[in-house]
């Protein structure tokens, strides 16, 4: 088990449930309301008895009042398909002391744990690190824990491409959670979420923001800077004026990002590695409706 | 020494490090901040902050650049061993040009001789000097400088130096130059090692020994002809060449005898191959017919692998020529030549030499000398006829003072040219005394009391001794005795092989034949053949001390007031300056560390 999840933290996670903002058809019985009518505890409506219906479902009270045979219909509770996509691109591990990756990993594990505890069908995709699922049941927790333990290599594949590939394998719609720093060009970001939206998924985007994303290279005035993902080199001016300009650019980028998520009914939450994980799960994610 | 005239460096080529260091420093400063790449997660948002580095637009060196440039400059000067050049007087340059300097220097790894190395070192030494500094160039062994001018004009004179056929006279040469009080400093260059000097003060005489590790390893092989002599018989002559191997390894050599005509053309006559053990001599002989050829050259060449064991090639040749002796005969007697009746012999000219003047007499120009009833203490260096020597004389002592009778011919007497037309039996001696037998002589006429006439050769010179009176004033005036005297004089003055040594004087018209070069002086300065007045004169230079390259004595600098302890020490001064410059660099580095290191930490 990951060292960042001691038993007491797991106990808290067991109290949480993963929710979808829409109901999805499942394949097995589970804890989520399904559009399918059938056996369940949530009453849906009546219909006239037909030959072959189970006499146990006949509402004898209605029959006594109306002398007609009606059977009760219930909303069936089925499992939920959960897809967790974790960004493993170089920007998640650079710079090394920033722990963006570890926070993204912890969020992914915590959500996986919740999903598995409620018997949901879970798929975890962390490009070049983990491709697990669909799995269900608490026993799969260990496999996910082991897979996410090692930090990703800096030279890992393109996250967007990997996410598109994972979306292509989805058979049943459900919840999809994308955990990334979203340091992506706008068109790529849109492409990623458009592909997921096309699969009729209930999407939630969790942005992990590092300290250097907010204020890059604090001790540097100027210098040759290398992009960890593309290898591109630029000589940058990091004077106070330039930093101020950077903050403006970043704010605009963030606004555009959130605007896009809102327009497309994609849940969005922002998280920094320094903040408390449980608080994030119970408060921030609860606001998006993903966790209850 | 009145002050500093300028600066020079012991290793000036190291000053090229300064511009290189300057270029490197500029490069480093221009690249500063660009060498280390700062990795960021993504340039997506940072891209708008891009700018062209100021260092690439134009180079604005900061203060620290000049500080570090100063450090580079000081380090360069320290490495080049900067030293102040004082206003000093003329420089004396004494270069050893003795024969051994013509040997190949094994430390150079090529065919360069010690003299070539000496010239290179001298050029390097004067390169540090101002071109206007007066300089005198001395060759060891020459009494006057071969060049006197400024350092700038010295080059051709240095290039013209050649090894000379002369023995080492370095100490004398240095002493001669040291006697020149105008010289401020004397640099001596030779192949001899320097005796270790314990004194720490710098002498006026700076010595530069050329022998490196290999050359001082006592394995300097050399083959040389050390002597040429003749062994005469009746109708032919034998030339004996002594060849010595001075090396520590046996060598195989080819010894060639060439005949040289009057015109100087050479033709090979005989060749012998022989192996000479280490540090040994061999004396092969060449027998030649006495025909038209009047001069010979003997050459020794090491063969095959041995060739590299012959480091000095200038001592591999020897010349010898047949010379017709002068007809002047010296007579050492109490009587004059006229009294002895010698004036009646028209072919010869006789001069009287008193006994007391014999020791100082110059006999080189005489064909032979007649000792009458007197003998010197040693055999003369010219042919001699000794008549009735005294009993106690050394070379021709009588065996007995008792007169003998009945002379008879010895075995050799049948063919002896001394007895041609002489009937020994008919000779009547008033008195004959037997001679002590000599190792160099054979008996010609014997009596019952012993040998009364002996003849032979010693050191290529013929000598005849008689134990009876031959002159007509005493005893019977026999015709036979007159013929015997004439035979003796002719035999003693026959053609002989002869050579002179380097330094012999010739007429201004003389021509050097082999190798054919004009003689620029009346003194022959190198071995070869000289054609002088229709006769050939062989000139040789044989010197074991010069040919033996392993036997070298350390140079002993002359001492005396004004020579030692001159307070001029370039090496020491350069070292002091280097230390000072290095100290300055250390201080600047500390300043650099304190000023900029702390500033960086604060930032």
Mind explaining what this structure looks like?
The complex is a heterodimer of chains A (292) and B (603). Chain A has 292 residues and is α/β, with parallel strands linked by helices. Helices cover 36% and strands 25% of the residues of chain A. Chain A has 9 helices and 11 strands. A 6-stranded mixed β-sheet of chain A has the order 6-5-4-7-8-11, with helices on both faces. In chain A, a hairpin with a 3-residue loop joins strand 5 (121-126) and strand 6 (130-135). Chain A is elongated. Chain B is of the alpha/beta class. In chain B, helix 1 (17-31) runs antiparallel to helix 3 and helix 3 packs antiparallel against helix 10 (570-602). Chain B starts with a strand and ends with a helix. Chains A and B meet through strand 9, strand 10 and helix 8 of A and strand 2 of B.
Helix vs. strand class of chain A: alpha/beta
Q: What is the subunit arrangement here?
A: heterodimer
In terms of per-residue confidence, which ranges of chain B show pLDDT below 50 for 5 or more consecutive residues? 197-202, 564-568
Quantity of strands of chain A, as a count: 11
Question: Percent of residues of chain A in helical segments?
Answer: 25-40%
Order of helices and strands of chain A: HEEHEEHEEHHEHEHEEHEH
Q: What is the average per-residue confidence, as pLDDT of chain B, rounded to a whole number? A: 80
Give the largest interface pair and sizes: A-B, 40 and 22 residues
- Cα-atom radius of gyration of chain B: 38 Å
Number of strands of chain B: 30
* Total of DSSP H or I helical runs spanning 4+ residues of chain A: 9
Q: Per the principal axes of the C-alpha atoms, what is the gross shape of chain B? A: elongated
Question: Order of strands side by side in the largest beta sheet of chain B?
Answer: 18-17-19-20-24-23-22-21
Structural class of chain B: alpha/beta
User: Which whole number gives the mean pLDDT of chain A?
Assistant: 83
Q: What's the main sheet of chain A like?
A: 6 strands, mixed
